[in-house]
Amino acid sequence: MKIVIFAVLLAVASAKKFSVEKSGNTCAMLVLSGKVDATASNGTQDLGSMSLPFDSATLIADSNCTLIKLNLTSSVEVWFQLDGATAGAQQIQPIAKFTPVDVFPKVNETADVVFTADAFGSFSTNQSFLCKASVDHAFTTQQVTPVNFTLQATTDQLQIQFGNIVNGSFSSDTSECDQDKTSTPQPTSTAAPTTVLPPQQDISLNVTNGNVTCILMKGFFTISVTFEDTVAGKKVNRTGDLNIPADAVASGNCTLNATVESMQILFGNGWELDFLFSKDVSSSDDTSVSISEISVTYNTAAFKAASPVTKNVTMEKKGGFLKTNLGGYYQCNANSTCIDESGVKLTTTDFKYQAFRTKSDGNFYGSIAECPADEETSSVVPIAVGAALAGLVLIVLIAYLIGRRRSRKSGYESV
Questions:
Q1: Which helix H or strand E contains 231, and what residues bound it?
Q2: Which of 49, 115, 247, 337 is the most buried (most CB within 10 A)?
């Protein structure tokens, strides 16, 4: 019997999100990138191979709160099933299935072949499992077949959670995979020069629902990406800055649910900046709005990388970023960093946003929540002016006293 060996290359597709809902609530969610590779052999000759990226997958309708099923093609499925659901010991069981005749034209078998791989992960019911590293999952068949099949999946940027998922966001309490804990960076030489494209532009964006403009955002946005590249045959760390242009296109959803809205900003060649806005209604007297998740998808082809890659970085925060009151808006005129995660930094200037709006115009309204940098500037100005005025009064008083003294002395000499 011929042993078929094949190599799996790291997928460069962007991470894709899949969500399973029950009764209007998200009960299972998966984000990942990577691909699935398979070969077929009859023992004397190769009968074909396939390679399918996860970014082409779609969620299968009969997925449930303990099983996320993905269709990579009409005939190839990969499942992520909750396994060993005991206290503190949940794992993920990968399962794959395909119909040979639909995948390999030289194979006449019409019966589905089912594969399983070793379970992975260790996390509790209140946690999400996160594995940013590239991990290979080798599958084995569950039945004897006339044709030898090999199947292997490569996943990276994987995050998964089962249970009650609040506001469609992963729990901030994550369990890391061993590969992330032990991975060490590749040795690199001095960073190459920064690339900046194009010049900064003030952009205005909005999301509408019928006649209501539910989200407004404006400002100058710069995304900085640090990535590994090859220059003159050597591995180097490069940093590229991309300013979001004025022709960026915004879309979104004002009705994800009563407390969540979203905005997606598309620009460049495959770049995307996503915001998830959350409304905290825990207190009826002081309802707040914040950005609960920021996601950046970038393509290093913009920086003329030798081997361009597309990746996604998502940052979420329990309690939210950049909080403001409902009916008001957030403002930060100073240059500030919104996220700095996994080599990706988003900075803004003259930034404003307002979500959960109820008006149709394009004007910001209501109370203003200022960032700390603006508040410090606002405090410094009156203090500086007051100190200057106090100094001026003191100088005038001293000059008056000196003049008065000289006047008296001159008067005595003239007598």
A1: strand 212-231
A2: 115
CA 236-240-241 angle, to 5 degrees, is 160
Same domain membership, residue 223 and residue 131: no
Which amino acid, residue 51?
Answer: S
Q: How many Å apart are CA 350 and CA 371, to the nearest integer? A: 11
156 lies in the same domain as 280: no
The strand pairing partners of 296, in sequence order, are 273, 313
* Domain shared by 172 and 227, yes or no: no
Please give the residue range of the domain that contains residue 261. Answer: 189-370
Measure Cα distances from 42 to 33, 51, 96, 394 in Å.
Answer: 31, 19, 21, 99
By the 8 A CB rule, do 135 and 155 touch? yes
Secondary structure letter of residue 64 according to DSSP? B
Helix (H), strand (E) at residue 399 = helix 372-413
Based on the structure, what is the number of domains in the chain?
Answer: 3
Are 175 and 222 in contact by the 8 Å Cβ rule? The answer is no
325, 369 in Cβ contact below 8 A? yes
Are the C-beta atoms of residues 13 and 51 closer than 8 Å to each other?
Answer: no
- Structure tokens belonging to residue 45: 């000759």
- Which of 138, 162, 182 delimits the end of a domain? 182
CB 131 within 8 A of CB 155: yes
Q: pLDDT digit of tens for each residue in the chain (415 aa)?
A: 222 322 223 333 468 999 999 888 899 999 999 999 988 888 778 888 888 899 889 999 999 999 999 999 888 999 999 886 555 578 899 999 988 888 888 888 888 889 999 999 888 887 899 999 999 999 988 777 888 888 999 999 999 998 888 888 888 888 999 888 875 555 555 566 666 666 788 999 999 998 999 999 999 999 999 998 887 778 888 899 999 999 999 999 988 788 999 999 999 888 999 999 999 877 656 689 999 999 999 999 988 888 889 999 998 877 788 999 999 999 999 888 888 888 999 999 999 999 999 999 999 999 999 998 887 655 555 666 777 788 888 888 888 788 777 666 555 444 4
- Contact yes or no for 4/37 (Cβ under 8 A): no
Instruction: Work out whether strand 128-131 and strand 174-176 pair parallel, antiparallel, or are unpaired.
Output: parallel
